[in-house]
Write a structure and sequence with these properties.
Helix content of chain A: 25-40%
Distance between the termini of chain B: 68 Å
CATH architecture of the largest domain in chain A: Roll
Number of domains of chain A: 2
Helix content of chain B: 25-40%
Order of helices and strands of chain A: EEHEEEHHHH
Number of helices of chain A: 5
Mean pLDDT of chain B: 96
Largest sheet of chain A: 5 strands, mixed
CATH superfamily of the largest domain in chain B: Aldehyde oxidase/xanthine dehydrogenase, molybdopterin binding domain
Number of domains of chain B: 3
CATH architecture of the largest domain in chain B: 2-Layer Sandwich
Oligomer: heterodimer
Structural class of chain B: alpha+beta
Strand content of chain A: 15-25%
Number of strands of chain A: 5
């Protein structure tokens, strides 16, 4: 067993896990954070996307020990007690998601993009979401949701 | 249908019908608080992993499970012979598909495996990892048998028969003929014949199939958490196969991570999981991994259709004929059977048009591949590719614009109700209005000018169309009449709580379409309360009225109508109480925005919270001979028409790279008529999602097999699904032609996108390639297929 300590959504969390345990498995099974999903287990679908040290990663492909000592943000930590993240707000208003299974991954991939590129083009958004499969929607409202969220974050538009 | 005691649901004050309100469950999903089956943990929970057949067809000579049984953490290792003591086999046939046959299917194979991936041995352990480790230790001695994989020769006398007791490999066949077919072809100026080929593809739900079964021997009660579209159907099936009464089985369906028709069937590993829980008296969880999804989720669309059309020089279609063969795997899927897709194709080809003569034949054959069954838009995309593909080829042959051919042969919008040549009843379709609207939206003339200008520069763009009809809101004519225990009716129980809020439990289910939203919209409107005062509950057989769940685009049209009827009944019950409290005639009162008001001028008289308080806590203040009833249940089953057919038209604009064979999708338009649109925002994206799934099948998705029946691309890297980057802008608009079969007038919208996008795309590719003399009649239209059509694919050079 290996001891792993992470700062997850701002709080230090530790668990003793077999060394082959993935970050996704540790989050879901040991820390009861089930927002990140297991969709394919090989990094194709993006449903397990979380942020490690601010970068989006496929948590199914990263071992828990590789994240040891680092900051991890999951979907559960994105909203504050007071407010949704702008992406969550626009995704809700536009019904950007349907079944919701891909949602945590898509929102976190989009957050990484907006953190690095506050004013992306639609093509840049498509590129940033190239690793996230949504099987329900036509992607249209997802792209609009990211565009609108960028606008809100840049203060170009009132949050309403 | 008018409301005697108030306004119809379309005229209610504060109506939510037709409003793009956000989904009530969206906030939860956005925070990662969705509860899918794998997110549930129960005390003493075990995990099952299945040892599956590595062969498409093989005899099980012996099974040695001794090493697995002593592996760490293992709870139980169960073979097919042992499982047969706990679970009855099933046979997937329907009596209204005359002559259909299939063999008994067990949840674990006993003597013989019939497809690669068929479950053979169940290994239950304390953790998934322990179960997987132990599964590797199960030693099975196989005798490999010849695999029947080629559907085209499955009926040849020289082909081995998969189930000798059945006599041959034919599951079902149908022949249909109406009108003077031979005469129609004889008098035609042009006859175009083509063989259309469709690859297998599958649903790829992002949440794999999943079940958690928890048997309590104390109460002899099985609770099943399942990712399914049809909880009551599964309750019945699980109870029946396990020898339990229905009231001893509860199916709970929380969030479902995509379904698309994949999760409405009887899967042997899921039934085995329920049986294992009963054997072990412990919770057992099964979550399919992605390889298992590809190998065991139902596939669809594996068809080859020889088809022809006869047309006169003035554009009149004189006759159509199809001959379809489809391979459906080794068993017909239970309980919907694997014959419906072929049956739909026979019914739907050409039925968009007013054609005088039609001959059709379909043969559904067994083979040693993954089972096929109903997936989103069952049969529609195939029927539309064939019919619309033929229409555009025929138009080119006689030198007439394909849209003019359509205008000439589409039944007039004012000619309904009418029947198709195959006898399907159409209440009211709007083909011509939809076509006109589409041309406005896409700026057709300018698009053609752009295409011509680019052609000069060697850029090959194409524009293709497809008219569609879609089967929605099925009555018992779909399955019930054939003996399947699949509910066509649905029910809604609605009640007022003590603080004046509305609780609404309904049999239709939510898999992301927005079912809970549209039910809340309808219920809020019917009762007369703000939507945030409505709580909708779906997916629990212990709580909701008996219903069919969500499939065949029935949730809004059938569930919505039940919610509307129940809401109105509750409003009447509330107003009866209010009339007593206010000493007024109930007919003079209404409920608006959560308040009892005077019907005439809207003056507020009483809050619903006050009604709740008095009825629930101070019934003593109401008259002695009056019992208040603040709950109402209503059911609805379509009676007027067997199906609520919808119609629509798609257009596709794309660019073909004639050097690489790659197709770039530029834009896609849809105009469809699903009757009353309850939530435009949800309907539009539902249509877009359908378009994208259709385009997946048209260009990317195919389950590839070796001649031995081995699936070659069972992962998301090799099986391509559409991602954001490949998809075009998709513009959606509607004609609203409500059904008069229900007060709400809603028809289904879930399949219109998938039904038409492959046909429009195929026609657009052919339009792009027409000057080059190339024609495609295959899905998926991979770069290889495009290059083949262009005569540029030479295998020897590539090797």
């Amino acid at each position: 067993m290996t001891d792993v300590t992470l700062t997850v959504n701002g709080k230090e969390r530790s668990a003793s896990v077999p060394p082959e345990t993935t970050l996704l498995e540790m989050l879901r099974s040991k820390l009861n954070l089930t927002g990140a999903k297991l969709g394919c287990d090989v990094g194709d679908c993006g449903a397990c996307t979380v942020l490690v040290a601010g970068k989006s990663v496929n948590a199914c492909l990263m071992l828990a020990v590789q994240a040891n000592g680092r900051d991890v943000l999951t979907i559960e930590g994105l909203a504050t007690a007071e407010a949704f993240h702008p992406l969550q707000k626009t995704f809700e208003e536009l019904a950007s998601l349907q079944c919701g299974f891909c949602g945590p991954g898509i929102i976190l991939s989009a957050k990484t993009l907006l953190d690095e590129n506050p004013d992306p083009t639609v093509q840049e958004i498509k590129d940033a979401l190239a690793g996230n499969l949504c099987r329900c929607t036509g992607y249209t409202k997802i792209l609009e949701g990211v565009v609108d969220a960028a606008r809100i974050m840049n203060g170009k538009q009132d949050a309403a | 249908m008018s409301d005697q005691k108030g306004l119809s649901i379309h005229d209610r004050p504060n109506s939510y019908i037709g409003r793009s309100v956000p989904r009530p469950n969206a906030k939860r999903l956005m925070q990662g608080r969705g509860t899918y089956v794998d997110d549930i943990k129960l005390k003493r929970m075990t995990h099952v992993v299945f040892v599956r057949s590595p062969h498409a067809h093989a005899e099980i000579v012996s099974i040695d499970k001794s090493a697995a049984e002593t592996s760490p953490g293992v709870v139980s290792v169960v073979t097919g012979a042992e499982m047969a003591e706990s679970c009855e086999p099933w046979v997937g046939v329907l009596t209204h598909l005359a002559g259909m046959k299939s063999a008994p299917q067990h949840c674990l194979a006993i003597d013989r495996a019939c497809w690669q991936g068929e479950p053979i041995v169940a290994v239950v352990a304390e953790t998934r990892a322990q179960a997987e480790d132990a599964a590797d230790l199960v030693a099975i001695d196989w005798k490999v048998l010849p695999a029947v994989t080629e559907m085209r020769t499955a009926l040849d006398p020289s082909t081995p028969v998969i189930h000798p007791d059945l006599g041959d490999n034919l599951c079902w066949q149908r022949e249909f003929e109406e009108g003077d077919v031979d005469g129609g072809f004889a008098k035609s100026d042009a006859v175009v014949e083509k063989t259309f080929t469709f690859g297998r593809h599958t649903g790829v739900t992002l949440e794999p199939r999943a079940i958690l079964a928890d048997y309590d021997p104390g109460e002899e009660f099985l609770t099943v958490y399942q990712s399914t579209q049809a909880p009551h159907m599964l309750q019945n099936i699980i109870a029946t196969q396990l020898g339990l009464e229905e009231h001893r089985v509860r199916v709970i369906c929380k969030d479902v991570g995509g379904s698309f028709g994949i999760k409405v069937h009887t899967y042997p590993d899921e039934i085995a999981t329920a049986a294992l829980s009963r054997r072990l008296n412990r919770p057992v969880k099964f979550i399919a991994d992605r390889l298992e999804s590809f190998q065991t989720d139902i596939h669809a669309r594996d068809h080859e259709i020889k088809a022809r059309i006869g047309i006169s020089n003035d554009g009149t279609i004189n006759a159509m004929e199809i001959d379809d063969v489809t391979g459906v795997g080794p068993y017909s899927m239970y309980p919907r059977t694997s014959g419906i897709e072929a049956n739909q194709i026979v019914n739907l080809v050409g039925s968009t048009y007013d054609i005088p003569a039609y001959r059709a034949k379909c043969r559904v054959v067994f083979q040693n591949k993954t089972m096929m069954c109903q997936y989103r838009a069952v049969g529609h995309p195939i029927a539309m590719v064939v019919a619309e593909g033929l229409v555009e080829l025929a138009a080119a042959e006689i030198g007439m614009d394909a849209l003019e051919v359509r205008r000439k042969n589409l039944a007039a919008d004012d000619s309904y109700p009418r029947k198709s040549i195959t006898g399907m009843s159409f209440e009211s379709l709007s083909h011509h209005a939809a076509l006109d609207r589409l041309l406005e939206m896409m700026d057709y003339d300018n698009l053609r000018a752009e295409q011509a200008a680019l052609r000069e520069k060697g850029i090959h763009r194409g524009i293709g169309f497809a008219t569609i009809i879609e089967v929605t809101n099925p009555s018992p004519a779909f399955y019930g009449v054939g003996g399947a225990r699949i509910a066509a009716q649905d029910g809604c129980t609605i009640r007022l709580d003590a603080k004046g809020n509305i609780h609404c439990a309904i049999g239709v289910t939510e898999q992301g379409q927005g079912t809970e939203s549209v039910i809340a919209q309808v219920a809020a409107t019917a009762v007369g309360v703000p939507m945030d005062r409505v709580r909708v509950l779906t997916g629990d057989t212990d709580v909701t009225p008996y219903g069919g769940g969500t499939w065949a685009s029935r949730a809004a049209g059938i569930g919505g109508e039940a919610a509307g009827l129940a809401g109105r009944a509750l409003r009447e019950n509330i107003l009866e109480v209010a009339g007593i409290m206010l000493q007024a005639e109930p007919e003079t009162l209404d409920i608006r925005n959560g308040q009892v008001v005077d019907m005439a001028d809207g003056t507020e008289r009483l809050g619903l919270d006050e009604i709740g308080r008095v009825v629930y806590y101070r019934g003593d203040t109401l008259p002695k001979d009056f019992q208040a009833e603040l709950v109402a249940t209503k059911h609805y089953v379509p009676k007027g028409y067997p199906f609520a057919f919808t119609n629509g038209i798609h257009a596709s604009y794309l660019e073909v790279d004639t050097n690489t064979g790659f197709v770039k999708l530029l834009k896609h338009w849809v105009v469809e008529d699903c009757g009353t649109v309850i939530n435009p925002m949800l309907v539009d994206e539902q249509v877009r999602g359908g378009v994208v799934q259709g385009l997946g099948g048209a260009f990317y998705e195919e389950c590839l097999y070796s001649p031995e029946g081995q699936l070659l691309n069972g992962n998301m890297a090799d099986y391509l699904v559409p991602m954001a980057g490949e998809m075009p802008d998709i513009i959606v608009d509607h004609i609203e032609n409500p059904s008069t079969d229900s007060e709400l007038g809603a028809k289904g919208a879930g399949e219109a996108g998938t039904a038409g996008s492959p046909a429009a795309a195929l026609n657009a590719v052919n339009d792009a390639l027409r000057p080059l003399g190339a024609t495609l009649s295959v899905n998926p239209m991979t770069p290889e297929q495009v290059l083949r059509a262009l005569g540029k694919f030479r295998l020897s050079k590539l090797r």
